[in-house]
Fold each of these.
Amino acid sequence: TRTSRPQRILKAVQRKATVGDPQSVITAIDHFCRHREWAMNVGDEKGSILDSVVSEVSPVTVLELGTYCGYSTVRIARLLPPGACVITLEFNPDYAAIARQVIQWSGLEDKVQLVEGASGDWIPWMKEHFGVQAFDLVFLDHWKERYLPDTKLLEECGLIQKGTVLLADNVICPGTPDYLEYVRNSPRYNSHYYRSHLEYTKAEDGLEKSVFLGY
Ligand SMILES: O=C(NC/C=C/[C@H]1OC[C@H](O)[C@@H]1O)c1cc([N+](=O)[O-])cc(O)c1O
Ligand SMILES: [Mg+2]
């Protein structure tokens, strides 16, 4: 049978990118998705906004919900100082298998913990299993209808504390209306919308950054 799109993305990385060079991995995926096949990576335009937020927060512990092929995992991990790490959750085992290889090709495996499974199952175990106190940054990019329930679960588990930054992809397209309404109306969050475009297209999309103010 035909290869999958994630497999074709990995091939493009192995053909075009240099082992140990995260920027070349990012460039190879963006080129493939812009000129060959669209794929749901955060992409170069929104990726630059992601970069600026990561640099501003300079997080020690990052949680990424939704790994896909590892494109945003590499974008985040390449900016982390020694000792900092990103835990990334992916439900789909085929995506996870590709992402592991993309992350390895970039040489960033020491800064990444890729976990296969459902966010709702894993979040309650984060403290115990990974020794995480609270996350400095959470990048939401998984199932859009899971953004709100998982945010509430992270709050309940004490994994979001004063100063934690939530950065959510696709708040316009495909859209996460209930999540947006929550973070924009809650007195416990300070929210800002970074207007951009759906990856590799001219359609509007953007990232919502929400800082938790504490209880
Ligand atoms: O569904 C999106 N992301 C969530 C991914 C969900 C998939 O990964 C876990 C599960 O196996 C599911 O099939 C998405 C969709 C679009 N889109 O334009 O359709 C654009 C994006 O940036 C996205 O993150
Ligand atoms: Mg997305």
Note: The longest strand covers residues 189-197.
Amino acid sequence: MNVALQYSGSQGWVRLLSWIDKLHAKYHKPPIMGRSKEKGGFSACVTCGSQDGLIKVFEMLVNPGDNVLLDNPCYSGTLAMVQPMDCNLIPVATDHFGLKPESLLSVLEQWKPGDAGDNTSGIPKVLYTIPNCGNPTGATQTLKRKREIYSIAQKYDLVIIEDDPYYFLQFNVKTISHSYQELDVDGRVIRCDSMSKVMSSGLRLGWISGAHPFIERLILHQQASLLHTSTFVQMMVSGLLDQWGMEGFENHVRNVQEFYKGRRDAMLTYAKKWLTGLAEWSEPQGGMFLWMKLTGVDDTTSLIKKRALEKKVLLLPGSAFDVIRGSKSQFCRISYSFATNEEMDEACRRLAELLREERS
Ligand SMILES: Cc1ncc(COP(=O)(O)O)c(CNc2cc3ccccc3n(O)c2=O)c1O
């Protein structure tokens, strides 16, 4: 306890950092892992949740006036951090399989690849994407798409911020999807991981990993901002991982996957029971969210923020996830992680009742 209650190093607790190395070696096999730190080898920094790491990455890479590429729709927490940065947010279209490479290319075609070295060209430097079990859409990018997107990033010299807190919440355990870090031969991927979805969100434990020159800067940033993530929490988590071992961790992940798959299946059952003909949706491949299109409604914002709330149905309007502020959206995000079956059943019934009232 006298160590856990003391200051510790900004990069993170040594036992936890060694666990992070082991987890990445097992799940992502980063091509840069074998290189020396000086040659851009793999490094990691423990952060106070991945949200804390994400904002530090954006603050490191983005200057006012920069063009920044993001998945659209985009996690609202990321929009909350980049909107005040006075940069130009460029939406890149997604579909049920996530970011569309052709959309990324069509955005970038206004520049030449050679512009990447010219700061006055305005060419984007950064692409932010959620590769697996996206928030809010639940979409997982196929490996083929990830490869195409990575080669576009190579052509235009983009840094890819891979925000992947739901990596361990993929339901099809036999084909757990790949990460951009796994493809990253250039050291251009900065990856954000989190213990929030696989262990506990209240721990506020995440980490950023990637090529050492990026991580070194983030550690300096950490020294000036947070000093370090809670020593106590880091020791507790690394102690638990020591006790579990890799096999125990994998068993725990399988239990978590099974739990959320059950929640997803229940959600789909009640959506189908009450909302068929009133709404459309795709089956989430992982994560905690169902992205639902309310047909016959051209913008869900007031319906969700006012009418649904009056019926005590708590959802988020699709407009909250749109890179372009003030956009209309026919979608809403349903979170199925907390609700009981009975609550899901009743919520879908109330939403259906509301949609019928809207149509009458
Ligand atoms: C894609 C993506 N990246 C990063 C994070 C942050 O994770 P962390 O800091 O490691 O815990 C998240 C967490 N997402 C949410 C959190 C949340 C917390 C309270 C209330 C609502 C919340 N809603 O709605 C969310 O989506 C995420 O989805």
Note: The domain at 254-359 is CATH 3.90.1150.10 (Aspartate Aminotransferase, domain 1).
